[in-house]
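Hi R.,

Here's the chain you asked about this morning:
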Amino acid sequence: MKYALFLGCNIPARVVQFETAARAVMGKVGIQLVDIRDFKCCGYPVRNLDQKAFLLSASENLAWAEKFGLNIMTLCKCCFGSLKEAEHFLKEDGDLQEEIKKLLAAKGMQYEGKTEVKHFLSVLYHDVGLDTLEHNISNTFEGLKIATHYGCHALRPSDITQFDDPVAPSIFDKLVEVTGAESVDYLSKLECCGAPVMGVNDDLSMNLTEKKLANGKKAGADYLCAACPWCHLQFDTVQKMMISQNGSEPLASIVYPQLLGLSMGIDEKILGIDMNQISLTNITSFFNKGAENVE
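And here is the predicted structure, written out as tokens:
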């Protein structure tokens, strides 16, 4: 299987470990990732300011992937939501759709709706499959409890993203449990991480973050697991700032490809474990060293 990898703007600049870990994991399970140098911003930053600018930016990415005959795999859920919205919108007829097509044509491009946008987690769950992932596990986590954070843009609007049940999602939990860890249920599991209002209303942003962290701790979680760079930054970099202000105990965040990569025996440097702001140094103490790889 082959996908066009859409990194977006944030990962190369601020969460490089998400990319390196994802590439390593996908290499393990036989997924080929293609880099399209002409990819640009997904349009998310202007989505609520200028719909035409948003759709044009997003549609150019769809057109480039279609030109290569590839589906898109995103790591960022903001990018996923934006590209899925554009994919859905451009399949309908209307004046704006026609204008976008004309603007693409002026650049020698076209989009006919042949490219599908998928998130990293969806590719692992639906296209790779849990059995294949289990086949590549060399160390299982024993007694490790993880609080999953689904994020907003993957689940809603559900008729467009079609990622999982927006009320009772389970994909992420099952992907965590394939590593041998336990995915714990906790209050505010499906609520916002607080990142969208950081820089606009920092108190509200950190209150939302603190609520999720407190509920995760109360449920007995050892770590929080995210699969979006913005969410991870909120739980990692912003949480570190919060700790410096109030001295609270951390609930460290790990991005999913790091968690999966560790259980696959991928080197910690490749996974960027030391790049996380809040230390993950104790996580391998949960390894069940007797786990067998069934390869």
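One quick note: The radius of gyration is 19 Å.

Cheers,
M.
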